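Try it yourself: sequence plus N,N,N-trimethyl-histidine, in.
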Amino acid sequence: MEPILEGTVEVRSYLGLADERTLADDVLDGLTRPLKELPPKHLYDARGSELFDAICELPEYYQTRTERQILRTQAKPVVARTGAVELVELGSGSADKTRVLLDAMREAGTLRRYVPVDVSETTVRAAAARLIDDYPGLAVHGVIGDFERHLTHLPEPLGPRLFAFLGGTIGNFPPGSRRRFLRGLRKVMAPGDHLLLGTDVVKDPHVIEAAYDDSAGVTAQFNLNMLHVLNRELGANFDVDAFEHVAFFDRKREWIEMRLRAREEQHVRVEALNLDIDFSAREELRTEISAKFTPGRLRGDLAAAGLELVELYADPDKLFAVSLSRRR
Ligand code: AVJ
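Structure, out:
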């Protein structure tokens, strides 16, 4: 009998002890400022990740299904154009949309390896186990780490690579960090590698605001969940019901902001940090920015990082964009 090619899974973690203090550091930095702020990564504990998955199914949240639709129609030309043998996915999560790309690579006969880069080892291992079952012979090399710092640990390329950063997550970076991130990415890309980047598009502010303040209140729960995280992880005593979810599109900066607004004056104790925080009535804590893009903003960011746009794919309603770029 012919031996059946077996997929291989290798997972390496680069997260160290130094990474575990970030919530405490971020709270100490962010909640003692005149304009209170916490980074959006703390929205994603187990409950937060569940709520985010629910958001992706909401009628108002057009991003996920629109991006999937764009990928379905464009995966084949992308693969033909890049000749990629390897898919390097940043912030891979459950690797759902990944399959559309892997399918196209398999069909083209080029698929050899999938390299998910993600902070969650459990998520990467679960996705890897499912993928090697469904793609016989596929090698999966997981890199557990932060894609702002651990991209230098990618395995030696097997050939032309397709880097994918989907979902519009790049919008979470403020403009300076966004360019720094893209520059870091450009640095680890070899000539012949391509980047497939998902970005939400600037449009009618009402459409954007509805996507971040849905009628079922799921996004509100997702946002408020950050206070539960602080209560649990740092022994804080936020009265979660005393805060309300706020989402608004900043037309000048072309990004949406999520905030938590104190309904009335609040005094909060953060036991683990021996810290007391006061909120005045209606004071807000910013929990996320999510930048929206015009073609100009996209080109500018790519150019600043030494990347050039090869193709810009959109859905017929121009709700979302997926761009393909390469080293200039
Ligand atoms: C996962 C960062 C792309 O900004 O749209 C969804 C997160 N926040 N609803 C986004 C999010 C509120 C999402 N990203």
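One thing you can check immediately is this: The longest helix spans residues 63-82.
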